[in-house]
Design brief:
Largest sheet: 2 strands, antiparallel
Structural class: mainly alpha
Helix content: 55-70%
Strand content: under 5%
Order of helices and strands: HHHHEHHHHEHEHHHHEHHHHHHH
Distance between the termini: 51 Å
Shape: globular
Strand order of the largest sheet: 1-4
Number of strands: 4
Length: 464
């Protein structure tokens, strides 16, 4: 088999035009994979609470990440990986539990929302809405996502932990003892004497030093060194096996693929569910594309990502595919910012990420214990948060009509642990602040549509 010439890759992916190289793209794609590969284990574990079997769900998760990332690379030519969303999977598993609907109907809702995405993308509506958002608000998406990533990293490593950790149940009980109350302090410093926490701190410092010294592959090198050190110190478990055949035995897709119930969700009673899934995914994708675009200096002077319809269409196809193969809503992944910070600028990086997910299909037992090494990969998320905070300089801090929505976007996103909540808060407040300031002419039709739909999310949807 003849290798693909470097010149052909350069021409197809426009490597030289975007100031990158094959080596940089491979490195960026691998870094993104390492930063997001935890989804292979975490997504099936969460969806199992909805009754979706873990073995088939693991394969479905990988298949969507493989196909979505490859499509993003080959068609959209963007260094943005695709996989099932965190947050949406929890909504599917836990948020809908009280409604008593089957997991087949939940998958049907995922599929229908994906089809709706595709329709409004092809019609140009998604791109029009994206371009209607002010540059300051778009930059706040990047800041919020950066801090959100940092918060995830801090919590995953144990540097920050729940305020309830270590407290006896009796101290959290309400007066009647029927429910658990919230601790006075929601989060607190973790156990800084824990070797795993100390490893994570050292890993973060190592990554930042490597980045400061402009070492190529600094994030991936930092992850590898920290993981190796942790393994030598005995943190981690041995895999139950090395290789397992996908699409067979416990990893067969047959129990969940094409088992979705579409007819069951096309009812008036399902409108709040569809609205919630639709808005969460739409805004997660929009925020991610703008956020990672800002991280890689890929936005124009108005804060727009060129040809945004292409990655949005890929996102829509991946979402529909998720419902078909048996997993939760999928789309552009914020962890792609780790690869972009390594220099990835084209779809070749996404191809590499997708291929690594393809390889992982055959090594699921080997991959599983690696994803428990939060002390190794989570510091990379904190590091990316540091790098993305610079977008705050592009927010019009001296204009309250821009600052207030931007501030709401950032703090609600981080403190509710939900990207969509932050974006909806900012999008609702932006026209309100403009109207209150008597600057009605600055409000465009797209901003009004977005604010109205976001209000529907809070009034009739299922925010969480």
């Amino acid at each position: 088999m003849t290798a693909v010439p470097i010149s052909a890759l350069d021409s197809f992916f426009r490597l030289s035009e975007r100031g990158t190289s094959v080596r940089t793209e491979i490195l960026g794609g691998a870094t993104t994979f390492v930063a997001m590969a935890y989804i292979i284990v975490v997504n099936p574990a969460i969806l199992s609470f909805a009754g979706i079997p873990a073995g088939p769900s693991t394969v479905a998760t990988i298949v969507v990440a493989l196909v979505g990332s490859m499509l993003m690379g080959l068609w959209a030519n963007r260094p943005i990986a695709v996989a099932p969303y965190m947050g949406e999977n929890a909504f599917i598993a836990f948020g809908l539990a009280a409604l008593g609907i089957s997991w087949q109907q939940r998958l049907g809702a995922v599929f229908v929302s994906g089809v709706l995405f595709l329709i409004i993308t092809v019609a140009g509506i998604r791109g029009w809405l994206a371009r209607s958002i002010s540059p300051s608000l778009k930059q706040s998406f990047a800041v919020g996502i950066g801090l959100f990533l940092a918060f995830i990293g801090l919590y995953e490593t144990g540097i920050v932990t729940s305020g309830a950790r270590g407290m006896p149940v009796a101290a959290l009980a309400t007066a009647d003892g029927a429910f658990l109350g919230a601790p006075a302090v929601p989060v607190k410093i973790g156990d800084l004497t824990s070797p795993a926490v100390l490893l994570a701190i050292l890993g973060f410092v190592l990554i930042m030093v490597l980045l400061q010294r402009r070492v190529k592959g600094g994030i991936l090198i930092g992850i590898a060194i920290t993981a190796t050190a942790g393994g030598l110190l005995g943190f981690g478990t041995a895999p139950k096996a090395v290789v397992a055949m996908p699409f067979a035995g416990e990893y067969s897709l047959a129990p969940i693929a094409l088992q979705l119930d579409v007819a069951g969700v096309l009812k008036v009673s399902f409108i709040p569910i569809l609205l919630t899934l639709f808005l969460m995914s739409f805004l997660d994708t929009l925020g991610t594309l703008v956020g990672v675009g800002a991280a890689g200096n890929m936005l124009d002077e108005k804060g727009n990502l060129s040809e945004i319809e292409k990655p949005m269409a890929v996102d829509a196809v991946a979402c529909a595919l998720s419902g078909l193969v048996g997993t939760s809503t999928s789309g552009a992944y914020i962890e792609s910012a780790t690869g972009i910070r390594e220099g990835a600028r084209t779809g070749l990086a996404s191809i590499v990420t997708g291929l690594l997910f393809g390889v992982a299909l055959f090594f699921v037992p080997l991959v599983e214990p690696l994803q428990s090494m939060q002390f190794a990969y989570a510091p990379a998320l904190i590091a990316v948060g540091v790098l993305m905070i610079g977008s705050i300089r592009e927010i019009a801090l001296d204009d309250l009509t821009e600052l207030v929505p931007a501030f709401a976007t950032i703090v609600v996103m981080v403190f509710t642990y939900n990207i969509a909540n932050g974006l909806t808060a900012g999008l609702v407040l932006w026209p309100v602040m403009k109207l209150a300031a008597g600057r009605v002419r600055e409000i465009n039709g797209g901003a009004i549509v977005l604010a109205a739909v976001c209000l529907l999310y809070y009034v009739f949807g299922l925010p969480h």
